Every structure is written in C-alpha cells, then in structure tokens.
C-alpha cells in the first residue's frame, strides 16, 4: 500500500487568520466572479500541485474584491 502524501497543511491562528503551506505547486487559477444574488459575489481559487488540488470557495459583497496582488 502506498503512503498518502500531504497536499496541504492548514493552521488556524489566534488572530483569526489562516496559514497554509503547500508543496510542489504547478498552477494557480482564479475563477471569474459571478453574482449569486444581488450584492453577493462568488469566486473560486484553485491551487494545483503535483500531489493534488486545493479549491477555495469565496463570497464577497463586490466582484472587485477578488484580485490577486503580486509583489514586484
């Protein structure tokens, strides 16, 4: 039997934030925001690794909140 590999490790921190470590990332994608009802928007962040896929479903009050910021 093959040993299971860890795809992601998640920590819930005392300052109400989430920290996640993920190894062997091969791709990131952010879905186009969709309005699910007036004033309620949905988007999905997908992180692909060599070991599996992690999907994060998100809700917000405006579509422009779903922006990935990068450091120069």
Keywords:
single chain, 72 residues, mainly beta, two-stranded antiparallel ribbon, 6 strands
Overall pLDDT level = 88
Q: How much is the radius of gyration in Å?
A: 15 Å
Helix/strand-derived class? mainly beta
Number of separate strands: 6
Task: Describe the structure concisely.
The chain is mainly β and 72 residues long.
Structural description of this entry:
The protein has 72 residues and is an all-beta fold. It has a domain at 24-65. Helices cover 0% and strands 51% of the residues. It is built from no helices and 6 strands. The strands form 2 sheets. Strands 3, 4, 5 and 6 form a 4-stranded antiparallel beta sheet that branches. A hairpin with a 2-residue loop joins strand 4 and strand 5. The chain is globular and about 50 Å long.
Compile the SSE list and pairings.
Elements lengths: L8 E4 L5 E4 L3 E6 L3 E4 L2 E10 L2 E9 L12
Antiparallel strand pairs: 1-2, 3-5, 4-5, 5-6
């Amino acid at each position: 039997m093959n040993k299971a590999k860890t795809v992601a490790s998640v920590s819930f921190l005392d300052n109400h934030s989430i920290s996640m470590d993920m190894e062997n990332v091969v791709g990131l994608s952010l879905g186009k925001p969709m309005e699910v009802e007036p004033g309620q928007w949905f988007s999905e962040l997908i992180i692909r690794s060599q070991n599996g896929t992690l999907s994060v479903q998100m809700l917000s009050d405006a579509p422009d909140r779903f922006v990935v910021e990068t450091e120069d």
